[in-house]
User: What shape does this take?
Amino acid sequence: MANPESDALKQAQQDYANALAAVQQPEWPIDHAPADPYGRTLTLVDGDLEIAHGSEGQRDLTFIVGKLELAQGIEVLIGTTQGSDIFNLLFGFDIQQTLMLPRNVREMRELVRLSVVKALAQEPRIRQIQAVAFVDEKAYLLIHPEVTPEQQTALAREQRLSRRWKLDVLLDTRLGDQVTAAVAGVGP
Assistant: This one.
């Protein structure tokens, strides 16, 4: 003898399974690569979008992925004056507040370093900052073990003559990778 409640339950379960199957995503093509956990964005060169020739000769925008995308994102974060992004007024680097009052070089460096660390706290892909150093500091060689002390001295001299400062950051990501990013500006 048929049980109407049991038959209705089985029919409801079958209807649910059919509906679920209808909305499931199709299988990815074999040549489709999974999304990069760091993200994917357009490549910037000196603040402009990069356009390159494709494999068939056409010109197109280029993309950057992986740890290089994170490093570029950090450079954009630091290169954006805080409050200038109308969609996120908290995004960016507060360099104006840092440079407003006259300070000696040592104090200015510390304020710039602290402002960079504060700005990097906005980046959810960063787990920990290992080192932050100007080119003429000992920690710079920790960030760049490939640089010799003689090369570091030459870089520091070049930086002083150009009046452009460069601060490099070594950080750990939430995925366990290490990334080095450069931050630069003009000033004392």
